[in-house]
């Protein structure tokens, strides 16, 4: 089967969509109060360092995805075991975002709808799109990217013209010292959303122009980091630091304040639209990566056969993952970054790099002999 | 197999279709326009809801059998907290109360004196209520009476009040739109306290709550009156008139206003229209007691002159400017004094100090802000500019006096 | 039914021949011809043995008899036997055979019979019939298109094609002569694609006329017209038109292959052909542009596309097709770029409106009442008071009614059509509102949707919006904007997954082709449209010389 390769601009677009996905709505780094925007920038820098590491790792195996070269690096069985761990991790990430997304939608719009229904509908859509192929997902991303950017610009202009912002809310910069900012920035912000770029370990082999991968990737992260930071700054300027930190979706609350001439009001509908699109792409990419990992681990020939089962697993676990939203959020902020994100995003990849460096010579031999293989 | 594959999504659709969880037809909703909260003797909340009868309000529909029903109706309900009262109200309403379009939240004076905290949480928590809902206090009356008052021009009182507030803020500058978000923000701000607009009924209060209010020439009306000053969530007192405007001057929220100043011994003979104004605040945090400097830069036009003054002379204009500066200065000083009297930082000096010197604020001032606030020294400096004088130069009074000689 | 139709057998037979030749087939209704086609097929089957035997017999009467038998001795078969002199005093018998309505009798009379009968024979002519035939071919007939006929099958085919055949006694060959004629619709203004500015001629049912129209616009030696024949019975002629120096050879190969692979009895309209050669069957979106306008075909082949013209229908196809083409009108290129950009945006938004307007209404009034401005909400709520149906039922009823009205209006005879629209507008619209069955807002929404769906330039794509509207309304009644958004994602994903002859349907948006964006939702000034579509025109990319270069050239020449 001919594998589909993504253009460099498509690669850029999916990174931005992926990064903004759910992060733009939730108050990212809000424990830093009015310096949240700065915490995001700090997280972004760290995330970019991590990304460079991922790039280095996958550069060694340009035509292979993580779960494929793990089997080269560690032999078939340990490699598969590690690959399986990553499969679970990706699936868990998909589940988490799905749950996040469902809960947010529930608390904002669908108060009485069961979360299972909302999530099922979302996953059903994703399964449909993934069955059409990764290519379709990426191209759909291109179209919605333009749409989301246009919407974002419109909303930005509206917020500015409605004269809602007060820059005083951002001052004083680092009023309570740098510590709250650092606390907010580590470890949450680098791992979410920037560290989630770890999924690209699975996607790098599908990028067309390899020499630009790092540069464009970092640029995309920079762009999305700036957008995130700017959005949060805008939220704070509109709502004031304290309200912004105590609202589940600051962006929604900020946009809801727009009221131009009693007619242009309640623009939060547009934000909900972006929320759904962003959530869709993020979950879809996680699920796709999980499918790819499963394909390698279980040696499935056609990825399309396992999309539906994995999707159903995601739905079920998204419901079972936590009994209420607070538990879910607490896990998301306290436990997950430390015990799940950091091992999978930092420790394991670093370990892989080290193992690679040690086994370099042995592997080189292997790589030479196996390199013509993917070309077939 | 293929049929089965088509059938599964179809049946899922059917299952989904049966439960329309959050679907509410428009005719199953009571659109709440205003919420009033009062306190009963036993500590329960007495909540009133102003509900619109859309057939009477909608343009064009009125012709068909309109005029028989009132434009709105007010339900009253009680409960230990707001949510309980709201759900309790369903014993009287045939439809679900729908809050997304509520324009104002009226608190009673009694409740405000006890504490407003209790009534704000649900309003800010419920996803349905818009964060742009205006918070007001019924001054010298009860929220339920305000909500019951029939207004003559705009059909729904709550709508009218929201409009009044906006107009007043833009034209007169003694009141400031305060939505639920801003109230909460000012409560949480460093050392901050909220400032909430007051509402009163003027005219025949008996008549106000009957539909006859439409028919008389000077019906009872609802009017904005001053702003309530809070301390720790309790209403302490009111700032009225120029005092209130002083607060807005410091906050830099004056958009436009009309201020009378004296001229050549005639009291209040010249009226100056403020076109725009800029305020800059700075604080010196060297001492134990901070010093705050308020610089106001209004741009004005002369709107009315009832004294013989030669407006073609620059020096006269400068004189007027100086007089105007003094008037504003006085207003501001009065406002500061009033707030210091109540020991309530409604102006936001705490925020300012925190911005200027976060360390000192957190370590020194914040702890005994109650003791420090009344002593804060405020230096006011107003530098106004009179730009234009309408489509006339000197007033005819001046011509009359100077002309023949 | 069948018997009744058979009784006026003359007419039926004639029609069947016409249809078989597909010259005037479009004028006759397919209901009548269907059984006769069967008959023809039956006959063909019976006689196959005798025909296949190959060469023409030199016996004139025998051939004539065979032809008569083969065609069932139809009334419109004319066999004119005559004699002419080859030597002084030596006469030879010849016959001209043709189908009356497919040929122009005047042509036959003036340019075949007349010169032959008046032939002044020379002495040198030998008596060998072959030589006589050659002599006639070169000296005797004044018809442009002449070719030899060697087999009986060929003879029958040329007769059905609308040629006349000249046979000479004792000769194993005949001559087929291009005397095509008969009545066809004249060139008229296209009815489905009316423009304010631009050529007013539209295709007709006659393939030759249509090809001539294209050739008149594109006078290039590189214009290629290739003829294919599809349909076991109808033998429909299909012409592929492209520019050899622009179009991608692989594309042309693909188009030809797909057409050649078709195995079917009949192709009567290009819509049938479209269904055979399109990429994806399970979709509501049209995958080929159909057009009645020669200038549209010309414009598209200039971009590297292929035009497919089918005999018997004025609608020709264009392949490959991008989604965005359905929102472009040929007029866009004839008007100023600013107004055409505006119009394109307008059409696109109109498509979106016709797709989602009712579902937005349902979502707003049943889920997101908070998003309606307060005053408007009062209005809508007041109108909804006392309506017995939920919003979704209300919308469904109205949309369905509208679809009925539309269908009735199209199929009705024109005189009755007016009545239908009056009944529809007054009785159903106004009365339903007054009776309190539907709210006035709903009528407005349906009205907007209807008008919007008519404003989309392509009928084909308006139809897909029409079909998708109903599922969208259903999902919005259950999930509000959430459902609509997900449904839109599904629709867009489906669109991106479509391909037309291997070219992505949604390009230049997905995958993004910046150069081609200049002529998509907007139309840039023509001096900016320098390149042909990137993926389509493989060979000759530059369309317009860049302005600066041109200027430079001018300067140089003036020096």
TrEMBL record, chain A:
Keyword Transmembrane helix recorded: yes
UniProt keyword annotation of Lyase present: no
Subcellular location: Membrane
TM region positions: 12-30, 36-57, 69-92, 104-130, 142-164, 184-204, 216-233, 239-258, 270-291, 306-326, 338-358
Entry keyword set: Germination, Membrane, Transmembrane, Transmembrane helix, Transport
InterPro entries, alphabetized: Spore_GerAB (IPR004761)
Primary location: membrane
Membrane topology: Multi-pass membrane protein
Domain of life: Bacteria
PANTHER family: SPORE GERMINATION PROTEIN A2
Family of the protein in this entry: Belongs to the amino acid-polyamine-organocation (APC) superfamily. Spore germination protein (SGP) (TC 2.A.3.9) family.
Name this polypeptide is given: Spore germination protein KB
Origin species: Fictibacillus barbaricus
TrEMBL record, chain B:
Keyword Membrane: yes
Topological relation to the membrane, as annotated: Lipid-anchor
UniProt keyword annotations, A-Z: Germination, Lipoprotein, Membrane, Palmitate, Signal
InterPro entries: GerAC_N, Spore_GerAC-like, Spore_GerAC-like_C, Spore_GerAC_C_sf
Domain Spore germination protein N-terminal: 22-200
Keyword Membrane: yes
Residue ranges annotated for the Spore germination GerAC-like C-terminal domain, each copy included: 225-390
Spans through the membrane: none
Pfam families associated with the record: Spore_GerAC, Spore_GerAC_N
Protein localization: Membrane
PROSITE patterns assigned: PROKAR_LIPOPROTEIN (PS51257)
Family from the record: Belongs to the GerABKC lipoprotein family.
Protein name as annotated: Spore germination protein KC
From TrEMBL, chain C:
Domain of life: Bacteria
A Pfam family assignment: GerA
Polar residues: bias regions: 23-33
Region (Disordered): 1-55, 537-559
Biased composition (Basic and acidic residues): 42-55
InterPro entries membership: Spore_Ger, UPF0353/GerABKA_families
Spans through the membrane: 345-367, 387-405, 417-435, 441-462, 474-495
Keyword terms: Membrane, Transmembrane, Transmembrane helix
Family: Belongs to the GerABKA family.
Name of the protein in question: Spore germination protein KA
Organism whose genome encodes this protein: Fictibacillus barbaricus
